Amino acid sequence: MSFSKHKRSTGLVGATAPLLAACEGPQSALDPAGAAADLIARLWWPTLLVATLVTLLVLSLLAVAVLRARRKQTAMPLNARQSRNLVIAGGIILPLAATIPFALSSFSIGRVIDAPLPDDAMTVEVIGKQWWWEVHYLDEAGERIATTANEIHIPVGEPVRFLLKSDNVIHSFWVPNLKGKTDMMPGRTNVTSVTADEPGVYRGQCAEYCGTQHALMAFLLVAEEPEAFDAWLEGQRQPASAPQTQAQVDGQQVFMQAGCAGCHAIRGTSASGDEGPDLTHLASRRTLAGATVPNRTGHLGGWITDPQHVKPGNKMPPSELTPEELTTLLGYLEGLE
Ligand code: HEC
Ligand SMILES: [Cu+2]
After folding, report:
1. 289 CA to middle of ligand 1, Å?
2. Which CATH architecture has domain 122-237?
3. Least confident of 89-103, 265-279, 282-296
């Protein structure tokens, strides 16, 4: 899977590059590509520092106690007043001094990054499924204008509102490079906003255990220049392109007859199932099945033949197609741009 390269971190992370290489990349909260993630990362580093110092302090005190016990030094080195002061300083003042600043900054950062968006901000509705993401783009009136799955595009530099839902178990929407997590709860709509300051392909991951394939419930968030985004959305709004060749016509027939249409919609055809992802523009997507495999012919064929091998336990059954049927079906699906 290839992700477009985006900003390399500088400063502390840059200086200790080899050690901290794991902090960079398309799914790292420490490689921020937006203001919200930047604030979160700025809070994270001092938290790590203070937590490290506190851990070292506690471990050193423990080491002192262990060594003293070994030497059987039983006499108290401190008098009553000294030990009371030690308890007050180490048990009350130090913990408060170490945690209150973090509580306050965490609270104020939360307020900044979740400030309400302007009413006319673009709105995307995302529904957590087992184990994939259903994605709807809404117009100003809240009507769905385009539907896709597992790949969300947004324009760079513009705040986007996300309405997060679930009709099954609890999931959590998380694009670490851009924002913290927001849960998706059955029966309610949680709202978050995301702004990407740099173009790139970021990886989102379900962050609340939701069953067998929770780990393979991922998606890509593609942040692109506004013109490219507008062109993409215009494409996604269209019904599927009609089959161009006889082979594609045959492939469409296989799709309708092999039961696929009962679970998948292809807008512009009679296929209107909603158990699985909308396939109207399948060929425009980079990955399949919750960013599990790249969307290439071999993977697509492997997925359709035996989805349980690729993502065990997922809700798509294997299909029994002849090699000719599979070939024409693939030809049809790959024409759905
Ligand atoms: C019982 C319902 C069901 C049937 C029948 C079914 N699918 Fe699926 N399909 C699903 C589900 C659910 C997923 C999502 C699986 C996941 O990612 O966890 C899926 C995923 C897919 C995907 C990946 C889409 C994406 O963007 O990630 C493709 C392609 C696909 N199915 C094609 C087919 C074809 C072709 C057939 C017919 C041979 C078929 N499906 C039959 C339920 C079904
Ligand atoms: Cu999930």
Report:
1. 8
2. Sandwich (2.60)
3. 89-103
